[in-house]
# Entry
Amino acid sequence: MHHQLTKVINKFMSKKNKIDGNKEKIVKSINNNIRSSTRKLNPILRSLVGKKVDIALRDLDFSEKRICKDIRKTVSSAIANAENNFQYDIDKLIVKEAYCGKKIIMKRFRARAKGRAAPILKPYSSVTIILSEQKKMESHGTKS
# Structure
């Protein structure tokens, strides 16, 4: 029984290693401790996914939101990582994934009338940007 179990485990482990072998390199940039809530970051990050990198940077430049400056830094860092560490062509890069997660919440209080206190929550978030090189799309059909 024990011998069969080890065979099954080894089989799964070898499959996992084969899958990891043909994985492409992931270009990633993580910005921890952005002073904003995930609720405010998510719509901005969702708008970046699937866009070319230069268009994403342009959109962040012209956005009115305060936090876009920090997101822009993270995207620029990911571009620099792609160029220096993986020798990717900047013109072919697209934003594959962009997501945020919760970090700490600083808790303060505001003094109110009659000796009461009201909470002030100052949330922090982490932003992760993952880039990939755009593959040439195959055209199907006769339209040109």
In short: The chain has one domain: 25-133. The chain has a mean pLDDT of 84. The two ends are 62 Å apart (CA to CA). Residues 25-133 form a domain with the Ribosomal Protein L22; Chain A fold (CATH 3.90.470.10).
